[in-house]
Structures are given as structure tokens and as C-alpha cells.
């Protein structure tokens, strides 16, 4: 092929614009196409770089002449433009795959249905505090490609979703972490859990015996997937139910973390910044990464004790008249809501609902029975929530705004209770995204 190679980027969000920046820096001819509306922030960024782009359409003759296409994780493989690219034999990869070609940095890649943002942020926090030159990217924070173009990090903590993994081929994680596998996004995987599990297991593809694989020994679906794939990297399991030789385990209230015999880190779970059973798992996973990188026990302990969790994930908003208000808007699937309820120690007024991705609410039934005194639905269509819980909860109310939901929940709660926004659903029926939902809820609580 004569002249410059042409890289076309589909999707002009954080990852797309970052990929465009890196592709341009590496001398490619670049074009960006978004089928949706490009926000002003990203339009301005592309204009500043002088990169041509189109919004609200995909012009085939400008896309099907690409040498390679970098696609946003949000675009499904069934999209017509993707099918045409594949039919023409044009390589379609993720931003992560593309960016990794241009960095020698060690990558710590974290995936799982739940807990990956928290674990990525905690791992980043521990590494940064220990003095490592480390970046944070992937499904969180700034684009990986943009950082590869402009920074010189020696390590990256990457939060990786199954959608990203589907478009990663030659990429290799130096340290791979699989937290858990539970049904999520099954609409993208022909409603088959095994297809979704196979995507998650791509986190170990291309790993050698020199690399590291960290996984939860208590998660049945992970164990099934591991038995099929048989990873060859050095494996470190973590468990809260049984002792492991190397990895991490819980003994009464003490966590033990060791990646080589006779050099273990111990820590009481009451000293962890993150409370709740699921967070013991997240802390163990981060702890194993830290020990693999040979960080000092004292430094790891300190960071695991002073970490602040992310916004919209079990975030304490306020205490009003003795009632705690918690924003867990990031809980967009049933499993996340299960984790949130599992960590509650008081009676709960639960605000849930939104766009239901074929949720199975059965797994919440026991927790709802034992902890939830009322459900406040926040969504356009709440029928499935009513059907699922009408026998378990006396009060189920419909609301159509964050303000209304906060007010009604406040009236239903009494001193000592917790009002928990943990929707178990996506937010697109009433809000722009889960952040918008969480921010509106927080604003409404502060108005009470």
C-alpha cells in the first residue's frame, strides 16, 4: 500500500479521542466517525488536533478504506458497519489493543462482573503511594491511548470490560486479575453465560509462565471457565472460605497475603478502608498484585487503610434525622445491588429501577426479605420489580424523578435506617447515565 496507513476510529468518546491522538502522533492518517452526537468537549479536542471527524452518521466510503479500525467498546459486533468491515477483512481492534503496541510499560489488567472499578482504583492507590510511576486507564479515568501518547509511565493499572476484551487479540496482561463472573450484559452474548465467561477469560490470552493470574477461588463460574482454558501463568487464588498455599485467604478476621513462602502480609479486616464481604475480595486481589510487585508490607497496609472509594459506589451522601443516605448509582446490575445490600447493617429503604437488562431478581430475594422495609422504584416501567418483590416487602412505591424518590424514601425511613440508591438497572430511561442519576440523587438529598 502506498502512502500513509489510514486508521479510522469509530466512537468519539474518551477512548476514541485518545486513540485518535495516539494514531496521529504515530504518523497515521486519522478519521473519526461517531453514529451518535459527539459532545462539545471531544469535538473541541479533535478540532484542536486538526483531526477530521463526522457526527451522527457513518459514511461508508470514508470508513471501508481503512487499513485498521479502532472501535469503541460500546459498538456491538452486530452493528452493520462492523459486519461490513469484517467481511472486507479489515482489522477491527480496541483502543487498548492499539495503545499497547506503543508502550513497554507493565500492565496490571483487572476484569470481573463486579468490583473492577474499586479494585483498579485501590490497586492504583497502593502502587502510587509506594512510589511507582503508574497510570490508571481502561474503563476508568483518562484514555490509555492518550496517556501512551503523552506520558511515560512504567506501569498501568487497566480496568478492562468484557466488551474491550472481545476486541483484544495480541494484547498481553503482565498481571491479570479476574474478580468474578456473574450474569451481566448477556444481551451481547446470545444470552449465554458461557459466551460471556469466555470473553472474560480473554484476560489471560497470550500470557506466558512468567506472567501472573489472580482469581477468586470462591467463584464457581470463574473456576468453571479456568478449568476450560487452563491458564499457564503463575496463579494466585484468593478465598474467604479456605486457606490457600500462595495467594490470599481469610482466617477469622485476619487476611493473609503471600506470593512466596515465608513472606506474608497480614491485616485485620477492621483496618481495611473498604468494608463488606465483597470488598474483602477486592482488597485481597489488590494486595496480591502489590506483593507480586514486591512492595513493602507497611506501605501496602497503610494504603489499604486510607483508600477513599469512588463516587457513586456505596458513597455516603448525608445523615439526616438519624437516617443514612447512600448513593450506589453505579450498581447497574442485580449483582452489584446484592453486594450493596450484603454490606448493610441496618434496615434499608431501597431505591431501585431503570432500564432492566433482563434481570433475574431472585438472587436478591433473601436479602430483601431480611433487610429491606420498603422499595422505592425509580424508572419508567417498574412492573418487574413489583412482580419480583410484592410478597417480600410491604411497601413498593413508583417515582419518576430523583427528587421524588429521595423525598418518599425519607418519609418511609426512620432514625437508624439507611436509604440506599442501588438501582440494579441502567439509567437511560430517566437520566443521561449512572453519574447523572447519582448526582441528581445527591442534590435531592441535600435539599431535604
UniProtKB/TrEMBL annotation:
<feature type="domain" description="Mur ligase central">
    <location>
        <begin position="110"/>
        <end position="288"/>
    </location>
</feature>
<keyword id="KW-0132">Cell division</keyword>
<keyword id="KW-0547">Nucleotide-binding</keyword>
<dbReference type="GO" id="GO:0008764">
    <property type="term" value="F:UDP-N-acetylmuramoylalanine-D-glutamate ligase activity"/>
</dbReference>
<keyword id="KW-0963">Cytoplasm</keyword>
<dbReference type="InterPro" id="IPR036565">
    <property type="entry name" value="Mur-like_cat_sf"/>
</dbReference>
<dbReference type="InterPro" id="IPR005762">
    <property type="entry name" value="MurD"/>
</dbReference>
<comment type="function">
    <text>Cell wall formation. Catalyzes the addition of glutamate to the nucleotide precursor UDP-N-acetylmuramoyl-L-alanine (UMA).</text>
</comment>
<comment type="pathway">
    <text>Cell wall biogenesis; peptidoglycan biosynthesis.</text>
</comment>
<dbReference type="InterPro" id="IPR004101">
    <property type="entry name" value="Mur_ligase_C"/>
</dbReference>
<feature type="binding site">
    <location>
        <begin position="112"/>
        <end position="118"/>
    </location>
    <ligand>
        <name>ATP</name>
    </ligand>
</feature>
<dbReference type="InterPro" id="IPR036615">
    <property type="entry name" value="Mur_ligase_C_dom_sf"/>
</dbReference>
<dbReference type="InterPro" id="IPR013221">
    <property type="entry name" value="Mur_ligase_cen"/>
</dbReference>
<keyword id="KW-0133">Cell shape</keyword>
<keyword id="KW-0573">Peptidoglycan synthesis</keyword>
<keyword id="KW-0961">Cell wall biogenesis/degradation</keyword>
<keyword id="KW-0436">Ligase</keyword>
<dbReference type="Pfam" id="PF21799">
    <property type="entry name" value="MurD-like_N"/>
</dbReference>
<keyword id="KW-0131">Cell cycle</keyword>
<dbReference type="Pfam" id="PF08245">
    <property type="entry name" value="Mur_ligase_M"/>
</dbReference>
<keyword id="KW-0067">ATP-binding</keyword>
<feature type="domain" description="Mur ligase C-terminal">
    <location>
        <begin position="312"/>
        <end position="425"/>
    </location>
</feature>
<protein>
    <recommendedName>
        <fullName>UDP-N-acetylmuramoylalanine--D-glutamate ligase</fullName>
        <ecNumber>6.3.2.9</ecNumber>
    </recommendedName>
</protein>
<dbReference type="Pfam" id="PF02875">
    <property type="entry name" value="Mur_ligase_C"/>
</dbReference>
<comment type="similarity">
    <text>Belongs to the MurCDEF family.</text>
</comment>
Amino acid at each position: 500500500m502506498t502512502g500513509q496507513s489510514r486508521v479510522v476510529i469509530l466512537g468519539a468518546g474518551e477512548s476514541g479521542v485518545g486513540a485518535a491522538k495516539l494514531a496521529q502522533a504515530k504518523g497515521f492518517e486519522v478519521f473519526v466517525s461517531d453514529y451518535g452526537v459527539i459532545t462539545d468537549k471531544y469535538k473541541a479536542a479533535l478540532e484542536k488536533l486538526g483531526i477530521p471527524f463526522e457526527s451522527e452518521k457513518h459514511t461508508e466510503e470514508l470508513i471501508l478504506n481503512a487499513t485498521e479500525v479502532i472501535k469503541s467498546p460500546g459498538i456491538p459486533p452486530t452493528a452493520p458497519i462492523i459486519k461490513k468491515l469484517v467481511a472486507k477483512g479489515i482489522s477491527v481492534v480496541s483502543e487498548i489493543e492499539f495503545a499497547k503496541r506503543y508502550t513497554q510499560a507493565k500492565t496490571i489488567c483487572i476484569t470481573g462482573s463486579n468490583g473492577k472499578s474499586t479494585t483498579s482504583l485501590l490497586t492504583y492507590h497502593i502502587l502510587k503511594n509506594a512510589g511507582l510511576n503508574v497510570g490508571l486507564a481502561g474503563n476508568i479515568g483518562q484514555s490509555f491511548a492518550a496517556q501512551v501518547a503523552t506520558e511515560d509511565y512504567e506501569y498501568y493499572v487497566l480496568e478492562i470490560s468484557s466488551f474491550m476484551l472481545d476486541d483484544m487479540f495480541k494484547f498481553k496482561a503482565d498481571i491479570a486479575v479476574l474478580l468474578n463472573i456473574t450474569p451481566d450484559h448477556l444481551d451481547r452474548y446470545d444470552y449465554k453465560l458461557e459466551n460471556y465467561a469466555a470473553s472474560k477469560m480473554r484476560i489471560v490470552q497470550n500470557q506466558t509462565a512468567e506472567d501472573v493470574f489472580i482469581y477468586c477461588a470462591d467463584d464457581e463460574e470463574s473456576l468453571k471457565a479456568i478449568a476450560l482454558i487452563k491458564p499457564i501463568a503463575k496463579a494466585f487464588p484468593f478465598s474467604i472460605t479456605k486457606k490457600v498455599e500462595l495467594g490470599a485467604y481469610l482466617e477469622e478476621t485476619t487476611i493473609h497475603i503471600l506470593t512466596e513462602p515465608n513472606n506474608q502480609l497480614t491485616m485485620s479486616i477492621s483496618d481495611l478502608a473498604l468494608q463488606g464481604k465483597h470488598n474483602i475480595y477486592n482488597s485481597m486481589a489488590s494486595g496480591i498484585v502489590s506483593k507480586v510487585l514486591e512492595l513493602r508490607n507497611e506501605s501496602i497496609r497503610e494504603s489499604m487503610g486510607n483508600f477513599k472509594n469512588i463516587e457513586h459506589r456505596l458513597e455516603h451522601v448525608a445523615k439526616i434525622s438519624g437516617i443514612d443516605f447512600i448513593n450506589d448509582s453505579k450498581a447497574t446490575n442485580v449483582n452489584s445491588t446484592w453486594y450493596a445490600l450484603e454490606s448493610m447493617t441496618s434496615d434499608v429503604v431501597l431505591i431501585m429501577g431503570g432500564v432492566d437488562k433482563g434481570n433475574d431478581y431472585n438472587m436478591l430475594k433473601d436479602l430483601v426479605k431480611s433487610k429491606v422495609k420498603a422499595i422505592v422504584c425509580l424508572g419508567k416501567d417498574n412492573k418487574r420489580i413489583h412482580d419480583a418483590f410484592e410478597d417480600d416487602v410491604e411497601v413498593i412505591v413508583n417515582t419518576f424523578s430523583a427528587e421524588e424518590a429521595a423525598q418518599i424514601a425519607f418519609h418511609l425511613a426512620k432514625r437508624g435506617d439507611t436509604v440506599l440508591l442501588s438501582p440494579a438497572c441502567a439509567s437511560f430511561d430517566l437520566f443521561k447515565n449512572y453519574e447523572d442519576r447519582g448526582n441528581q440523587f445527591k442534590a435531592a438529598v441535600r435539599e431535604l
